[in-house]
Amino acid sequence: MTFRRPPEKGRCLVPTPPLMIETEGLSKRYGRRRAVELLTFAVAAGQICALLGPNGAGKTSTMRMLVGLAKADAGTVRIADQSVSLGAPILRRVGVLIDGPASVPHLTGIANLRLLWGASGRAWPPRGLTDALDLAGLGPAIDHKVKSYSMGMKQRLMLANALMRDPDVMILDEPANGLDPAEVRALRQHLAARAATGASVLISSHQLAEVQLLASHAVVLNRGRLVTAGTLDTLLGAHQSLEDAYLAMTDGSDRAAL
Question: Is 85 left (phi over 0), alpha (psi -120 to 50) or beta?
């Protein structure tokens, strides 16, 4: 099979269409601060791509633009070959965890999930609800009011919201925050199984050992610009660990963030 168009620097893919996440020349500034500049990459169906970089590298800004939560100053974003804007129909096929917990404190966890699902206009419950709740590990707390939740529990609730949609595309910012080691492993296995059925995953994480176990590809950012992208094996090169390769790529600028 061939590429839809010739591959460009920064494309996080193998030559197997379809491309599910695409950015081209993506740029974003906040005042004088450059968050993202001329970022081009893509993730194909069945790939798990890690978005890596120091704190402030532009990872969250990129993810927000991918799902219409922030408007790009320049460049384009496409999900499943459709343009993206806030509320675009294609986003119903996307599981999103960005910016940490966002919930209604006086409602229970399950009521929050039902409220969030209601925006889709589809019948409750979603088919992926049971698996999502198991992975989030909230147990009986799902029937407690969110105002009683710790920050970690709120993060788990938003993870359940992202996964219960059984999405074709997942865009997850630090999804393992608040999970214990067994739950992190269960999440890794779930994401790998979803990718094996053709789902695409873009995941941001500072847990590089976990990324090395999970990801097939990686995009590395620093100061809003692309450093490198490709298969994880290529990025590792002669290094034994992703941490060593990553520090070499970013000149050790992220030691405090690992």
Answer: beta
